[in-house]
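agent: user wants the full assembly modeled, not chains individually. Plan: 1) parse entity lines 2) check alphabet per entity 3) run joint structure prediction 4) return tokens. Steps 1-2 passed, two entities, 274 residues total. Proceeding.
--- entities ---
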Amino acid sequence: LFNERVYEQHAAYGVNPQDRHWGTPYPGTFLLDEHGTVMEKRFYQSYRERETGAGLLVDGFHAESSIHDSEVRSGSDGVSVRAWLDSGTYRYFQRLRLSVELTIEPRLHVYGSPIPEGYIPLSVEVAPIEGLVVGSPELPEPHPFQIDGLDEQFVVYEGSVLITVPVTFAKRDAGDQVMHVTARYQACSTTDCLMPASVTLELPVRAEAQVASAAQ
Amino acid sequence: MTTQPPSLPVIDFDTIGPAVGTRFPDVRLPDQRGQTVDLHAARAGRSALIVFYRSADW
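--- prediction returned ---
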């Protein structure tokens, strides 16, 4: 694929021939619907960044992922928490998808944002690892909830909640890692609240061997 | 004093290549066995991912 036409195309992309990245192809993906229409284009400003196959299927086509290489589970009273990566291995600059799912017992809810002061909304945090770039957690839309006797407006999650977080290992030769993922929330019913919970799960992820010529 | 690496140009991917909402072009290319594959015929009315990759092992 590396011919003059490709170089011309890269010039069209605005890559300067003097630039050290001249001639570097950008990976990317087009998502087509059943009519062959482009639904979405997924290209990133860094040519090094790319997604996993499983992540594309789940995120792009909402496919149910059955690939939970490194699923871990924990929880607290009334709520179970599980977390997994769409790949149990990572490559330098490959964009992984971290999923954290809460299963909330019937008659309980956890709060979403925005929330009145003094309450604890659901959040997910990944502990820093050198070279690990953590994107913004994506939470589903919570639904409005009214508690008898209170004037405050609440939004809550009930049942099952799936939070996803894009993560990228941007440090070469970082080796195998363990990600510490913490979910914070408070589960309540319409009459009582349980103690605020902070559940930390340890997710191992192995480094995939790099091809020397491509590890730029 | 530190030297910052040169920054890459910002690319507007929205304006390059087939646009969102348009039909992906007809593509007929040989596969690894030399057989011509017609993208839209091979899709047979199903969704598809068209993945451009730097190399098979990266």
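agent: reporting back. Strands of chain B lie at 28-30, 36-38, 48-52. The first strand of chain B starts at residue 28 and ends at 30.
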